[in-house]
Write a sequence for this structure.
């Protein structure tokens, strides 16, 4: 097929192929463009090449062609937040959806924990972290009945006895040696899983929480 | 007559400019909102250069952090997306140089890029159903075809046709001449057309995965 074209329209076809990309960019002078237009209307092969090349550009420029690994956006946002050290600042409304998801995860985790209390898993204090970017004025609670050194968001199901807590700010809690609960303060820690808030990787968090329940 | 702007693109640009200004004035927490529309393109640019998903994600994150650190240097005469992609390309190229992870790309890499390239397939490939890209197998075919291109062609094609940088910006990002960008772009587009036109003839663009009444479940 190419040979036949070469025989019949050698110069024109080769010129067209050489300039077809520039033609699509609008980067050929008007005289050449007119000659090429004329050629496309006469040569079905070059017209097909032009259409196909247009198709290539249209297909690959489609947003759907860019696929990112699962959890990419969340990991990016987390790294950005960690790096930015935005004390006291809200980090983009995008994470707002995490709040209800986290709440559900806490409930689910609480049920799972209740079922596993008799399992007496090994203690894992190594999971304790100071946290980062925790708004200093955030209201948190700590248990007054145990020697737990964790502070929680009010309502966290991992507080030993919800009727025996005292309220303070995150800054005060940190100054008094408390560290954030791995469950309810998860968004301020480096433990968030890429598989979702309530992932299977929560066992360590549960174990650590259990360690505070004497 | 009211001069109400109903153009979504223009409205998006205005919102972007507002976000840039606010972040530059210290509202750091808005930065993710600013870059979020481009995060996929940042990743794709890094992947085009590094060809390794883990490295690409790491470099994409590094590039975004760098953009954040230098946001006050951004000037409105450039497109924000272009600025971000250029930072990403630079990061990716530096990573590749630093780690010397240049993959042997085959003998074609050394081929004279100025030599002519003649189309090999003249399938009548005029129309593509726009829904073709909904199908993962089609996207995979396209990705596979792109992956067969030599690095120098792939990089130019990704930056120009997927990332929407213009020719000049692509040249600057990759540190090559405008003439080289044009030559490589021509060849990349024609090679992809050849690869995909053959697929068109085989019917994988148009064939539905499961014909009606022939579902596997």
């Amino acid at each position: 097929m190419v040979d036949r074209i070469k025989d019949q329209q050698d110069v024109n076809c080769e010129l067209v192929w050489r300039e077809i990309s520039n033609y699509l960019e609008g980067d050929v002078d008007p005289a050449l463009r007119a000659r090429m237009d004329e050629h496309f209307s006469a040569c079905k092969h070059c017209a097909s090449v032009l259409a196909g090349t247009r198709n290539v550009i249209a297909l690959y420029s489609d947003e759907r062609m860019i696929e990112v690994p699962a959890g990419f956006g969340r990991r990016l946002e987390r790294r950005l937040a960690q790096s930015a050290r935005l004390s006291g600042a809200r980090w983009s409304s995008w994470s707002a959806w995490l709040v209800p998801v986290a709440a559900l995860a806490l409930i689910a985790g609480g049920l799972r924990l209740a079922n596993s209390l008799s399992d007496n898993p090994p203690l894992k204090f190594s999971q304790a972290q100071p946290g980062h970017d925790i708004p200093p004025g955030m209201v948190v609670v700590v248990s007054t009945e145990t020697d737990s050194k964790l502070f929680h968001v009010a309502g966290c199901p991992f507080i030993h006895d919800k009727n025996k807590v005292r309220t303070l700010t995150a800054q005060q809690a940190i100054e008094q040696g408390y560290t954030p609960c791995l469950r309810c303060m998860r968004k301020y820690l480096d433990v968030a899983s890429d598989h979702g808030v309530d992932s299977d990787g929560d066992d360590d968090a549960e174990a650590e929480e259990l360690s505070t329940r004497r | 007559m009211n001069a109400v702007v109903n153009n979504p693109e223009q409205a998006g640009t205005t919102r972007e400019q507002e976000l840039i200004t606010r972040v530059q004035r210290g509202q750091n927490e808005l930065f993710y909102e600013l870059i979020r529309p481009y995060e996929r393109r940042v990743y794709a640019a890094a992947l085009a250069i590094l060809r390794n998903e883990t490295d690409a994600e790491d470099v994409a994150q590094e590039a975004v952090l760098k953009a954040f650190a230098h946001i006050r240097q951004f000037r409105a005469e450039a497109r924000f997306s272009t600025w971000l992609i250029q930072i990403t390309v630079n990061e990716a190229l530096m990573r590749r140089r630093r780690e010397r992870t240049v993959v042997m790309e085959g003998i074609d890499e050394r081929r004279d890029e100025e030599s002519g390239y003649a189309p090999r397939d003249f399938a009548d490939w005029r129309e593509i159903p726009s829904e073709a890209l909904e199908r993962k197998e089609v996207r995979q075919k396209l990705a596979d075809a792109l992956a067969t291109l030599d690095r120098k062609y792939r990089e130019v094609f990704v930056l120009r046709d997927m990332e929407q940088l213009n020719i000049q910006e692509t040249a600057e990002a990759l540190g090559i001449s405008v003439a080289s960008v044009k030559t490589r772009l021509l060849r990349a587009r024609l090679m992809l057309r050849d690869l995909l036109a053959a697929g068109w003839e085989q019917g994988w663009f148009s064939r539905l995965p499961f014909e009606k009444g022939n579902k596997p479940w």
Remarks:
- Chain B touches chain A through 53 residues (CB under 8 Å).
- Chain B has a mean pLDDT of 81.
- Residues 41 and 51 of chain B are 14 Å apart (CA to CA).
